[in-house]
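User: Just a sanity check before I run the rest of the batch. Below are the structure tokens for the first item. I only need the designed sequence back.
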């Protein structure tokens, strides 16, 4: 029999034990936070790369070509790509005289620049020539295809997505050729013409051509990441976000059928209602959040530079990872880093206010977190919807515009495998981003690209794929991607060129013995 006194004593002992355990736990958490390595100091400042002043005007001119990729390819104007190509020929004479150029699918450009060591795996630098359409030209401060330089910016569609990469790479190569430079290993340049329409005829065909020739790259550098200042909560220093992974892509069409007829005698269950229930379920049951891969590496890399509270959490992800992941779901931009996202994008059904439609249709767009698969996502959607009257079908390319898209290319893309941090290629790119920054402390960190880039076609052909162009995104700038008033600061563009310049010069440091392709 337990007396009141002895039970109270046991409680006190248990509480003391628990309190002690908690104290030890808190001590472990704090010690882990204090033991985080200090940030590495920036490298020695290098003399600036010799970038001509005319580079700014050349970018502005390139923005005047309306190389727009539309959802409906019939609206595209190939003469603009041809005109841009002629402009590049006139603007970069050394590149066109000394590098071999091939055209792929008529408008995509591939240049090859033989290196001193043709036996070593080559490197590929990428950008894309096409841009997205402009919804309302009158909403812009400067005309989107005017190529205006004003107030310290180059304005126009393509200024940060992605003509700054195409022109920036060519500027770096032209400058290096002027110095009599030959790269340590062969360098390829690839500029697709339909990235904004999934790269099916551009980057995909280029990748097929390289694959057929048995080319394997030490690393690929494409668009995706950038420098950022003041956009990451708690981080007071600027950061270079180098994309090491890329989310996958899937659009699912949901269709329901009902008895068509007069709205005066409606049945209990109707096509639109059944569809609406399925969509509501998908919205109410987001995919679970988990912190892993590139976003986890990013937070761990940034941790030493974050406020103490965040540092404690990030130094103890062994325990707190689920809590941190849940916290990140509160904002759409950070939620995209920790889960496969569900976006309800199209709903259609009905054509007359007093007629029951026989069919209703919706499209749901998913961006897959690395680790998830297209098949697994479809299976999960099926189980959430849990209604056999709702038909599911992955959308094909062209399906978003035309509805059916029957027999065309599948639009679904598996998430890209993560590239390594700390590999020889990473060190070349990371060092170039630091040397070109020139303004003291910079956090260089891996990053997950939540959009899609042409580089996904090259993942099977490369040891590593990195996604970075050296412009800077400050808090209001993120909306300029595919948005109104796309622009790049003149100084940012010069830095973007310098990153490519330093990557090419840095190839000498790609140690063959440490090169995984040589092992
Ligand atoms: Zn782009």
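Assistant: Here's the designed sequence for the first item:
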């Amino acid at each position: 029999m337990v007396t009141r006194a002895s039970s109270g004593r046991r409680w006190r002992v248990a509480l003391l034990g628990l309190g002690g355990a908690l104290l030890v736990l808190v001590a472990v958490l704090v010690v882990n936070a204090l033991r985080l390595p200090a940030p590495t100091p920036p490298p020695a400042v290098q003399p600036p790369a010799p970038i001509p002043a005319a580079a700014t005007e050349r970018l502005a001119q390139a923005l005047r070509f309306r190389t727009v990729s539309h959802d409906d390819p019939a609206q595209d104007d190939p003469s603009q790509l041809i005109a841009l190509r002629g402009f590049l020929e006139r603007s970069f004479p050394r590149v066109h005289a000394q590098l071999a150029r091939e055209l792929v699918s008529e408008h995509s450009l591939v240049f090859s620049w033989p290196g001193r060591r043709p036996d070593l795996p080559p490197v590929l630098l990428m950008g894309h020539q096409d841009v997205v359409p402009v919804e309302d030209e009158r909403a812009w401060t400067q005309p989107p295809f005017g190529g205006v330089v004003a107030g310290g910016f180059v304005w126009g569609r393509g200024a940060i997505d992605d003509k700054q990469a195409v022109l920036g790479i060519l500027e770096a190569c032209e400058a290096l050729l002027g110095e009599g430079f030959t790269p340590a290993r062969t360098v390829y340049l690839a500029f697709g013409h339909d990235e904004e329409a999934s790269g099916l005829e551009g980057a995909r065909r280029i990748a097929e051509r390289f694959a057929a020739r048995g080319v394997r790259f030490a690393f690929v550098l494409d668009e995706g990441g950038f420098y950022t200042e003041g956009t990451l909560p708690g981080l007071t220093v600027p950061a270079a976000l180098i994309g090491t992974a890329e989310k996958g892509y899937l659009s699912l069409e949901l269709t329901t059928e009902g008895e068509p007829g007069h709205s005066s005698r409606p049945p209990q269950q109707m096509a639109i209602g059944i569809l609406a229930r399925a969509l509501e379920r998908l919205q109410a049951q987001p995919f679970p959040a988990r912190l892993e891969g590139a976003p986890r590496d990013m937070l761990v890399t940034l941790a030493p530079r974050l406020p103490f509270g965040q540092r404690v959490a990030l130094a103890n992800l062994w325990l707190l990872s689920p809590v941190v992941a849940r916290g990140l779901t509160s904002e759409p931009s950070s939620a995209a880093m920790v889960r496969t996202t569900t976006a309800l994008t199209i709903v259609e059904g009905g054509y007359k206010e007093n007629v029951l439609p026989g069919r209703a249709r919706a499209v749901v767009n998913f961006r897959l977190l690395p680790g998830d698969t297209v098949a697994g996502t479809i299976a999960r959607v099926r189980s959430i919807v849990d209604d056999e009257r709702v038909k599911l079908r992955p959308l094909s390319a062209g399906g978003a515009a035309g509805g059916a898209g029957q027999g065309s290319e599948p639009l679904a893309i598996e998430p890209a495998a993560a590239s390594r941090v700390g590999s020889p290629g990473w060190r070349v790119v990371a060092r170039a981003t630091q040397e070109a920054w020139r303004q003291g402390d910079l956090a260089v960190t891996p990053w997950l690209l939540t959009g899609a880039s042409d580089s996904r076609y090259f993942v099977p052909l490369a040891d590593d794929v990195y996604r970075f162009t050296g412009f800077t995104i400050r808090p209001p700038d993120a909306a300029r991607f595919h948005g109104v008033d796309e622009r790049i600061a003149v100084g940012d563009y010069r830095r973007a060129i310098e990153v490519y310049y330093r990557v090419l010069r840095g190839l000498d440091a790609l140690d063959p013995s440490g090169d995984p392709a040589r092992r």
